[in-house]
Structures are given as C-alpha cells and as structure tokens.
Amino acid sequence: MKSEYEKGFLAAIMCTGLWGVLPLYWKSLIPIPSSVIIIYRILLVAIVSLVFARLKYSWHEILSPLKDKKIVCKYVITGLIITSNWSIFIWAVNSGHIIQTSIGYYIEPLAVCTMGIIFFKERLTFCKLIAIGLASLSVIIILIHYRQIPGIALLLAITFATYSAIKKTVKYPPVLSLFYETIFLAPFAFIYIVYMELHGTGAIGRGAFYHYMLLLLCGFATAIPLGLFAYAAQRTTMFVLGLAEYISPTITLIIGVLIYKEPADRILFMAIGVIWLGLIFFSYGEFKDSKNRK
C-alpha cells in the first residue's frame, strides 16, 4: 500500500508529465486553426469543470460564491488572463515555437516569485535575488544573440504570474476556480462556435473525423492535470510541487528539439542553462525557508 505522501508525489509527477506532453496533443489537432481550438477549449473546459464540480459539490456550494460582486470581478479578470495564456501557448505550439513556450514556463516560477515580492511584500532572500537576476540574464543573452525579445516566453511567464497573483486573493477549490474562470466566457464561446460552424469556418470539415473527436477531449486535457495537481497539493510538500513544475518545460523542450526539430543552438542552451542555475538557487532557497518554518 502506498502512503498518502507517495500517492501525492506520483500525482505531481503525472500532472507535470501530462502538461509537458500537451504540445503533442495540440499539434495533433492541426489542420484545425489555433483560434478555433482556443474557442472550443473555453466552452469545453467550462462544461467539464462543471461536471467535475457537481460530482463533489451541491448547486448551492457551486453558485453561492457568485453572489459576491468582488469575487465575480476577480474571476472575470483571471478568466481573461488565463485564456490569454492558453491562447498564446496553443498558437505558439502550432506555429513552431515550442522551445519558446518551454523557456516561458522555466521563467514562470521566478516571475511568480517577483510578483510576490512586489505586491505581497514577500521576503527577498539572497537566493531569490540571484535566481531573478539569472533569469533576467538569460533573457538578455537571448535578446543580444537573436536581436529580438523572446516575446512568447515573456508573455507566457507574465500572464501566468499575474494570474497567480490575483488567484492568491481568492481561495476556492481548483475545480470550482476553473469553472468560475471559464463560465463567464463560455456563452460567448458557444455563440461564436455556432456562428463559425454555420459559416464553414469552424472545426467541422477542417480535417479527418478523428481531429474533431480529439478536439472534443480538450476539456479533459485541461481538467485532468489540474485535478492531479490539486490531489498532489493536499498530500505532498510545496518543495516537491515546486521541483515537479520544472518537469513539464523540460519535456516540452525535448519535444520541440527532438521531435519537431525546432532550431536550437549553443547560445539558446546556454540561456536555458542560466535559467536552470537560477532555478537551483530558487529551489535551494525554498528548501531552506521550508526547513526554517518547521
């Protein structure tokens, strides 16, 4: 029999592993346009999250938080932000920028840390300062070498860090949060899907039948990893969750380089190495802090 901690650890690995291989799923939906995938995802995530929420909570428990205008406002904002994050990610993957998405999610924990220091007055330790500095250095290396800002990576990191900062102020179970974040956009998504399909610009007829069937699973592709993450968060440590977060961009990077043959030179790997060094400092700092809190 596995202990609760071991089950949580396994769930964390499975969750981040699934997030890491998601580019394979989004790529498999081509020739359906990214914009169509995004609209379907909004609606299907709302439906799937409601089904999962209803399995655990009563209608009263699900709907009562929506009576608070401040909570509604925050979830509308977080819904728009996380939808932007999804949109950038799906478009980037299907446009040949998988490596940039992996860089974005390597930087993301450090961006979240920066948000915590700026907006929540969290303590800036020496290790965090070094980690943020190294992440900034990696962006500068890419900027100088490629003569362009790694826009996709920065947008993914910034949108998710902003999303995390706002989410810190509203604490509801993950499945309810996911429902609240998508339900306000779902009616617009439904209307737009009907419009697109009636005018022949939607998903139907864009590819083989299996493309459409795969598209209909995108709600589960979003909800299942999130459910595993919530399960892991209740049974393991934040340190383990933090380290597990680096599995997904590593898998994504391998997929981009080895499977889809995206261009990557020594300078790019040097920049990623600098990020990894920053993550080592960051993880060590978090480990020390967790020991001091005990």
Automatic annotation (TrEMBL):
Highest taxon above the source species: Bacteria
EamA domain residues: 7-143, 153-283
GO CC entries: plasma membrane
Coiled coil spans: none
Chief site of localization: membrane
Subcellular location, record wording: Cell membrane
InterPro entries in UniProt: EamA_dom, EmrE-like, RarD
Family the UniProt entry places it in: Belongs to the EamA transporter family.
Name of the protein in question: EamA family transporter RarD
Species assigned in the record: Mogibacterium timidum
Gene (name only): rarD
